[in-house]
Amino acid sequence: MIKAVIIDDERNSRDIISLMLEKYCPNVQIAATASDCAGGIETIRRHEPQLVFLDLEMPDGTGFDVLLGTQEIPPFEAVFVTAFEKKFLHTIRFSEVEIILKPIDRESLMAAVEKIASRIEAQASTYRYKVLLDNFNNGHNINMDLVIPAGGNEEHIISLNTIAFLEAGTEKCVFHLNDEQQLDAERSFRYYTDLFSTLRFFQINNHQMVQLSQISQVDAEHNRVSLKNGVKLEVAERRKKDLVSHWKQYK
Amino acid sequence: MTVNRIYLLFLFLCSSLNIFGSAPANDTLAADFSHLPSGIDLRPYLFSIEDKGEHLTLKQVPAAEFSHNYLIFHEQRKNIGKEHNCWLKLHVKNTGQSDSALTFFAGWHDYMYWYIQDSSQQLHLLRQTGMMLDRDNVRRWEHYGFPITVPPGQTRTFFLHINNKIHNENALMPTLFNALQYEGFRSSQLEFYRKETVLVQVLLGMLLVCLAIAIINYIQLPDRSYLYFAAYMLGLILFFTLRLESKPYQLSVFYRWPMLKYYWDVPALLFCFYLMYLAFGNAFLNLQERYPFMEKLFNYVAAFIGAIILLCFYCIAMEQYHVPGMIYSYVYLATLLPLLVVFAALARRSRHHPLVRFFLFGSLCFYIACFGSFIMLVKPLGLISALGELSAPSLLIIAGVLLQSMFFLAGLSYRNKLVHNERTRTQEMLIKQLNKNKELQRKLNEQLEELVKEQTTEILRKKQELEEQRKIQLETEYDKKLTEIELKAIRAQINPHFIFNCLNSIQLFVMQRDYEYAQKYLSDFSYLIRKTLDFSRRNFISLADEIAYLNTYLGLEKMRFENKMEYEIVIDPVIATAELEVPAMLLQPYVENAVKYGMTNSSQAIGRLLIQFNQVAPDMLECLIEDNGIGINRSKTLRTLPKHHQSSGMEISFNRAELLNKMYNTGIHIYVIDKSENNNTESGTIVRILIPQL
């Protein structure tokens, strides 16, 4: 059994999480609930749960405050439950911490619980939460760290600005770093292009996305872009103009 | 010099031999003066003595030792290499009856003094004459025949002192004539020299013509080469005129200055054929531009020649007459080859230039004439004498001079022509250029006008384009802003949190099988979404609609928060809510904020929300949104989020009001008041919105 705690300021929310867990995830046992940050921290200290369902925004703080307030006790896994994630999208997604969107659907809840169960079983690292809090505090998008799931419970942690470009692999996404190291991620290329679309990245063709800061030269005549580490990539004709303007803007 | 010395030695030897071997039988010339044989050669009867250094005085002479010396006599002009000072003694005895006079002639010499010895051995000067001494006009030539009158049967002794300063001594051949014979001799001499004189005079005439042409041309076209040519001509004219001075029995011009002919002899040659020649060549060929090296060379040589001329003058003044002759010989020989080289260089340098041709032909004519004359002189005179005679004008040299002058003059004329042509061409070109310029100016003006016209239209077109562009840009900007505002309006008004939380609640009711509740919740939610979509397309809605919307919204919130909040909407009855128009969903964000922060007060179990609509003035609607939360000031300090995550809901609302005012000139004012600022016992926030009515 996994010992869990729910922290949410709306009773409706707490009720439906516990109701659904009861119904679909019998291996999770709700030890306690709390309706605000302060109460949440206290509940966690008292119960020392393995898993915490955490609302992002509460009247007296955020889910991050709860995590910050419980750093000294034994580590636990957390699942963020929120109605709208946009504000903290990159903070959470980069650290690969589980997140469930309201209204909660069965599949995502079950998948999240299953993943966490396997992590607890494997006694996997909880370094992702440190990455999460660092990202939350550092804030500035380009300085953030990125956790790359590498299959199983393996993962790589890299700094976002070391990425030269991403490439679509077969069902995987390949990260090419500026030192020409390559990392395979257990997520699709598409997932990352969506995630990075508001950052300083640009998709130059159907299967490659480059970080603008890594570009050393754009050869518009030959549809080529040279990266600072010497790699040359091809640019799709229709994306060329946008690339040049984006790059210039960035420079 | 060595040759001269040997020659002197030889002379000395001869004279000493003659002293011992002389025949005393011929001591006295005994002649019948009435019947004199024709032209008696007096050599056997003359005693002579050389007086080097002029030590002998008149008193010493009769007592001096005279001797026979044939070697001092010569029939031709002879280079003796030094000055010659000698005395001749003649004893004459008249064997005849009458005392008619005889004439003694010994040649044309520089200084001649004729003495007679009286009984007391005293010398009496009878006559003095000489080329350097006699200033008489044509009569002076009669002075060279010295009269000898001896009474019949008597003997007289005459002395002739000859002093030749010039190294080239004229013929020294003592002869005795009676009156008739002397007349014959005189007319033969006159005849002989007349030929030469005429030649010189013809030459002078031609040279004068050349000079006149040069001067006239110079006046018309002041060109330096004419001046040099004129100086060259003048020098030659003077030279040849002075040549006349030494032609016996001929008329002359400068007889009053007998020394002048010596001064203007060698210097004249140097002046004309070197100094002026070089200066003329320099100016005539325009070497400064065409051949700078040659110009420099010419100038240096000319300066050197000038110095030599001054040196010659000095030597003549010092009576060293042989020095200028030697200098001239050396100069002549030294320049023979270099001149040829210069000619070749000039010919090569400017092969096709006609002026060079004129110059070269003229120079070569004279050069060849000079050289030819020199060669011709070497044969009869020997090398040394020929060198001494270099300055003597022969027929060949005269021809050379004439040819050279002709060529130079022709060259000058050609030069004139060239200059004239050049000037004409320049003028023509100038006129052509002027015409061209005019044409160009006209064309340019036309082009410029066209260009200005074009540019003006272009500018106008550009201006118009720019204006249109600006209009378009403004419009797009405006549109963009508008959509932005609209988007902001939507975003500000429907908090996605609220939407999904509502859905979450509905889901719960469904799961709990509380279908009635779920249905009411769902229909309210649908109403709210529909209204939101509707209002977001409109800018103004009626106050009644706004109030209904707020009511539904607050009802849903109340449901979410399990009645942990209460709300009340109070409307001034004078307000016609259905007719009054307010900006769509202006109030919603403030109400949402009030709900959010109204719930945070731990001292108040239930959040109370009061919304009031008042007519504060006939055209002013007041809306008050009041909560009992912790107040805006405290809630700001409560924030724990890092700066970059802070919510901006309120700011968006303020921006919206500002934008609305800008767009519709609505003059909406929003005040946010913390209740604790007025009264410490109360807490919460009041948002006061003033909406002017149109």
Automatic annotation (TrEMBL), chain A:
GO terms for biological process, alphabetical: phosphorelay signal transduction system
Phosphoprotein is among the record's keywords: yes
UniProt domain Response regulatory: residue ranges: 3-117
Modified residues (4-aspartylphosphate): 55
GO terms assigned for molecular function: DNA binding
Alphabetically ordered keywords of this record: Phosphoprotein
Any coiled-coil regions, as ranges: none
PROSITE patterns: RESPONSE_REGULATORY
PANTHER family documented for this protein: PROTEIN PILH, STRESS RESPONSE REGULATOR PROTEIN 1
Protein name: Response regulator
Organism: Chitinophaga tropicalis
Organismal lineage: Bacteria, Pseudomonadati, Bacteroidota, Chitinophagia, Chitinophagales
UniProtKB/TrEMBL annotation, chain B:
Record-linked InterPro entries: 7TMR_DISM_rcpt_extracell_dom1, 7TMR_DISM_rcpt_extracell_dom2, Bact_2-comp_sensor_kinase, HATPase_C_sf, Sig_transdc_His_kin_internal
Gene3D superfamilies, A to Z: 2.60.40.2380, Histidine kinase-like ATPase, C-terminal domain
Signal peptide: 1-25
Residues of the Signal transduction histidine kinase internal region domain: 486-564
A GO term from the CC aspect: membrane
Keywords for this protein: Coiled coil, Membrane, Signal, Transmembrane, Transmembrane helix
Transmembrane spans: 198-219, 226-242, 262-285, 297-321, 327-346, 358-378, 390-414
Coiled coil region boundaries: 430-472
Molecular function via GO: phosphorelay sensor kinase activity
Pfam family, one: 7TMR-DISMED2
7TM-DISM receptor extracellular domain residues: 45-165, 201-415
SUPFAM superfamilies for the chain: ATPase domain of HSP90 chaperone/DNA topoisomerase II/histidine kinase (SSF55874)
Annotated protein name in UniProt: 7TMR-DISM extracellular protein 2
Species: Chitinophaga tropicalis
